[in-house]
Write a structure and sequence with these properties.
The chain is α/β, with parallel strands linked by helices. It is built from 7 helices and 10 strands. The protein has a single domain, classed as 3-Layer(aba) Sandwich (Rossmann fold). A 6-stranded mixed sheet has the order 6-7-8-3-9-10, sandwiched between helices. It has a 4-stranded antiparallel sheet with strand order 2-1-4-5, covered by helices on one side. The protein is globular and about 50 Å long. 38% of the residues are buried. The structure holds adenosine-5'-diphosphate (ADP) and magnesium ion. Magnesium ion binds next to helix 1.
Length: 228
């Protein structure tokens, strides 16, 4: 398993004196290398919380999170950022590209600096290859404002995959796209999953997109239930 949540619970307080709101209640989830799974459920049920736990962006109150066979090194910021940079990819509803950088520069940002920095020439070659692969070969030198919404999301996908992560976490990545662009982005995510072997966890409200994943879950009352 590349990711395992075991008996994970998480609660939040809107303010220090506000009542505790339980979001996850003893939730289990195991993800094997290369597999695809969808998480659906109403707004506020905790879908992003699950992705944040898988992405080491949040820590559970109880239970364990294992990634790539090891416990998450909570509290060790250097180890956490190395783990995020090298083995995890993130895509969100909004692209979060830097407006002043070109598509190519945005894709290369995760490869700059830090102790885990990959070889710059290899990174540049992979960035160009992937941008070509997603149909953006002619748009590499454009800035985000010069790209369509679908194109910007494709740049965000390439940025997420540039370090060859084992796990791609996608939080409603098509939520801001029209149906045609959403379908094309999904086609691409499925193809890249097959080509790169990157496991994909997709949070989506769209049953048609969820249906394309090999496993589907609904988050209900703080636990995952199998099914559509
Ligand atoms: N950092 C936080 N502080 C306080 N409450 C939070 C925090 N993150 C999430 N919540 C609350 O937890 C619940 C689940 O949030 P979230 O995981 O974002 O749901 P979803 O992604 O399914 O819409 C929501 O009620 C949200 O307001
Ligand atoms: Mg959410």
């Amino acid at each position: 398993m590349i990711a395992e949540l075991q008996n994970v619970s998480k609660a939040y307080r809107a303010a220090p004196d506000a009542p505790e709101q339980r979001v996850l209640s003893g939730m289990d989830l195991s993800i094997a290398a290369g597999e695809t799974l969808a998480i659906s459920g109403p707004s506020g049920c905790g879908k992003s919380t699950v992705l944040n736990l898988l992405g080491t962006l949040d820590e559970p109150d109880a239970g364990s999170v294992k990634l790539f066979g090891a416990g998450v090194p909570y509290g060790d910021e250097a180890a956490l950022s190395a783990l995020r940079a090298t083995r995890l990819g993130f895509i969100f509803q909004l692209h979060h590209l830097l407006p002043q950088c070109t598509a190519l520069e945005n894709v290369l940002i995760p490869t700059l600096g830090g102790p885990t920095r990959p070889d710059p020439d290899a990174a540049l070659e992979r960035a160009k290859r992937l941008l070509n692969r997603v149909g953006l070969g002619a748009h590499m030198d454009k800035k985000p404002a010069q790209l369509s919404g679908g194109e910007r999301q494709r740049v965000a996908v390439v940025r997420a995959l540039i370090r060859e992560p084992g796990l791609l976490l996608a939080d409603e990545p098509t939520g801001a796209l029209d149906a045609a662009s959403a379908g094309r982005l999904m086609d691409l995510l499925m193809d890249l999953n097959a080509e790169e072997g990157t496991a994909l966890v997709l949070v989506t409200h769209d049953p048609a997109l969820a249906a394309r994943m090999s496993r589907r879950y609904r988050l209900v009352d703080g636990v995952l239930t199998a099914g559509d």
